[in-house]
Design a protein that fits this description.
- With 120 residues, the chain is of the alpha+beta class.
- The chain folds into two domains: 2-58 and 109-119, hypothetical protein PF0899 fold (2-Layer Sandwich); 60-108, no CATH class.
- Helix content is 33%, strand content 30%.
- It has four helices and six strands; from the N terminus they run αβαβββααββ.
- The protein has helices at residues 2-17, 36-46, 77-85, 90-93; strands at residues 21-29, 51-57, 60-63, 69-71, 104-108, 112-119.
- The strands form two sheets. Strands 2-1-6 form a three-stranded mixed beta sheet, with helices on one face. Strands 4-3-5 form a three-stranded antiparallel beta sheet, with no helix packed on it.
- β1, α2 and β2 form a beta-alpha-beta unit.
- α1 packs across α2.
- The chain starts with a helix and ends with a strand.
Length: 120
């Protein structure tokens, strides 16, 4: 389960920045495909007195040719799976529905971002 490894990385990051963290805000990119319940449970087990706010960031793909934005939910199931496992190669299996280009940028929805750490 990569949720526990991600939680350990968050705890390590937070511990390096606050002696006694009270609250953290974490942004979960849709492409990470994190099970929020497991991730939150892991964080709470490792940081039992810390308030944890999780926000999911929707994936946005932008066509570099015509600038049309697409969301992961707009793609077919097979395309969504491929984008999740190999997002850098989105151009190989997705084309813009507007202009047909295969030149895309992932604008939002990648990674796990610690937005803020509040300590006492």
């Amino acid at each position: 389960m990569h949720e526990w490894a991600l939680a350990e990385a968050v705890v390590s990051f937070v511990s390096d920045r606050a002696d006694r963290p009270r609250r953290i805000r974490v942004l979960l990119g849709e492409l990470q495909n994190v099970d929020e319940e497991i991730f939150l449970s892991a964080l709470k087990e490792m940081m039992d007195d810390v308030e944890i706010d999780l926000t999911r960031e929707e994936c946005v793909l932008r066509c570099n040719a015509c600038k049309k934005d697409m969301k992961l939910k707009d793609l077919g199931e097979e395309e969504r799976e491929l984008v999740h496992f190999l997002p850098e190669a989105v151009h190989a299996y997705v084309s813009c529905p507007l202009c047909g280009s295969r030149d895309f940028t992932i604008e939002k929805g990648r990674g796990v971002v610690i937005e803020s750490v509040e300590g006492s």
